[in-house]
């Protein structure tokens, strides 16, 4: 695989900013049922896609145990958030938490914060609750909870894997990781701006 030429990085960053920022993957937009709809849910909004790719990017940039611990922390806490959403337990500021997650993950990648693996896992895990809540709150009562949940967990794991791949490539290009992180953080600011 050939690395992305540095001259294309600003173009890719601009493309990320132009992605639809409406949180279409959140409660009240579409009816969901079973694995296919659960799988599609994280892919239906740029906010989820960016955050989940960024988790993989962060894990790859940190390396070592972070390669599995950081995505696993996100998945575990996302499942907890999904259960809260399905149960109808209120969680305030879900959309804001999702937007802030994109900014936080992007800044962490841009500045190469050398956080310990446990701290990085705790950071992504805390924000994962908001993502999971949005997924769980979307599930209608008639849907198969297990199938729907397995779908959004599988899609998230695939996005983390894609982020890991991007992170491994970006790690080889010293300038790419800060630029990618900054693009993700700016996209998060755009998501937050749409909430105001």
Structural notes for this entry:
The protein is mostly helical and 196 residues long. The protein has one domain (39-195). 73% of the residues lie in helices and 0% in strands. It is built from eight helices and no strands. The protein is globular.
Coarse morphology: globular
Total tally of structural domains = 1
Give the SSE order as H and E letters. HHHHHHHH
Quick one: how many beta strands?
A: 0
Q: What fraction of residues sit in β-strands? A: under 5%
What is the count of helical runs?
Answer: 8
Instruction: Give the uncertain stretches in residue-range form.
Output: 8-32
Rg (C-alpha, Å): 16 Å
Span between termini: 41 Å
Largest sheet: none
Percentage of residues in helical conformation: over 70%
Average per-residue pLDDT, rounded, comes to: 82
How does the SSE layout of this entry go?
Elements: H1 9-18, H2 34-40, H3 46-62, H4 66-87, H5 94-110, H6 117-138, H7 145-172, H8 176-195
Helix pairs in contact: 1-8, 2-7, 3-4, 3-5, 3-6, 3-7, 3-8, 4-6, 4-7, 5-6, 5-8
